[in-house]
Write a structure and sequence with these properties.
16 strands; single chain; alpha/beta; five-stranded antiparallel β-sheet; binds S-adenosyl-L-homocysteine; 13 helices
Length: 351
């Protein structure tokens, strides 16, 4: 049993069963045993690999899209370049390298990173080298001004509540204990009319997921973009609407039981992009990752870099491009959502 499992069992014995969201929050960010607090999860040697860790082209293309949108909006100065959940800092390092040649961009920018893990903050600082950044604990600490933001696999790490449709209402999925082991259970029914109306017509047994933890970061970003301009590019796996039980645990690149080893595995859930769009209340564009990257010029960039490579390095480079865009790999299940101001044309990357 992991040390966090003992902490959780004690809490459940005292307080009773807890929502999936409370379990997820403890597993990921418990101050002593949380997954993001104690681990270096990303990359080939870690538990999972994300798009920016697969190829530098990902950050380059998103960086240039942000810079183009900044130019299209009249190159506001100063502005905030921000990232939510920067992981190892790879994405931001690639964005900074790609935008170095954009006249005035770096001079006008204040770089701000929202990161909960002290460990990862240190890794990010090292990755950014000479570029100064400011780390914040709360999204409301973002400067009040134009905001150009990226978030890659951040929203999938926020705690979700799960509900199951029953005969008399929606039951929240809870985590309790049975003979000293964690197990799933259900709350008493919450009345239908107290629940998200998007799911009013769903059949008995439907599982839906709600992520109220997404509201604060999203509203903080949207308010700034609405008032001062900017762009948010949010990339994650998921779909337009929450469908089914998507809570998943991954350790060493393999799916595991989410209750088996709390604190030792990454826990995520699919992102409900419709909910993000509703919360943000901004114009938006939304498309599969593969489509957006191709529209931004991934194929041309792949070819240009390929000219300098040969042998295994060339094979790996071409495989990385395919991995990001192929519908059978990350191209389709990952989506990119752009949120932008009323007064601006649609950002680059969206047809
Ligand atoms: N964007 C990176 C890392 C994704 S993992 C990549 O694509 O490789 C999720 C990241 O979000 C980690 O850096 C994690 O520590 C951070 N994170 C998770 N929950 C958070 C929260 N509530 N507040 C701030 N950062 C959080």
């Amino acid at each position: 049993m992991t040390p966090l499992a003992q902490v959780l069992l004690r809490r459940i014995q005292q307080e009773g069963p807890i929502p999936v969201a409370a379990y997820m929050a403890e597993c990921l960010l418990h101050p002593s045993y949380g997954y993001y607090i104690t681990k270096q999860p990303f990359g080939g040697a870690g538990d999972f690999i994300t798009a920016p860790e697969i190829t530098q082209m990902y950050g380059e293309l998103l960086g240039l899209a942000l810079a183009q949108s900044w130019i299209d909006q009249g190159a506001p100065s100063p502005f905030t370049l921000a990232e939510f959940g920067p992981g190892r800092g790879t994405l931001m390092a690639d964005i900074l390298r790609a935008t170095r040649g954009v006249p005035g961009f770096h001079a006008a920018m204040t770089l701000v990173l929202l990161e909960a893990s002290p460990n990862l903050r240190a890794v990010q600082k090292a990755a950014l080298g000479a570029v100064a950044a400011q780390w914040i604990d709360h999204p409301e600490d973002l400067p009040d001004g134009p905001l150009f933001l990226v978030a890659n696999e951040f929203f999938d790490a926020l705690p979700i509540h799960q509900f199951v449709r029953g005969q008399t209402g929606w039951h929240e999925r809870l985590i309790g204990q049975n003979d000293g082991a964690l197990c799933f259970g259900l709350s008493a029914a919450l009345p239908f009319d107290a629940f998200d109306p998007r799911f009013a017509g769903d059949p008995l047994g439907t599982v839906v997921e709600l992520c109220p933890a997404a509201d604060a970061p999203l509203q903080a970003a949207a308010r700034r973009i609405k008032a001062h301009g900017g762009l948010a590019l949010i990339a994650d796996y998921g779909g337009w609407r929450s469908k089914g039980d998507t809570l998943q645990a991954v350790a060493a690149h393999k799916f595991t039981d989410p209750l088996a080893a709390p604190g030792e595995a990454d826990l995520t859930a699919h992102v409900d992009f419709e909910a993000l769009v509703r919360t943000a209340g901004l114009p938006y564009a939304y498309a599969p990752q593969g489509t957006v990257l191709r529209t931004l010029g991934l194929d041309q960039r792949t070819e240009a870099l390929a000219k300098r490579l040969s042998g295994p390095a060339l094979t790996a480079h071409l495989a990385a491009a395919r991995r990001l865009t192929d519908p059978g790999e990350m191209g389709e299940v990952f989506k990119i959502l752009a949120l932008y101001p009323q007064t601006t044309p649609q950002p680059p990357g969206f047809a």
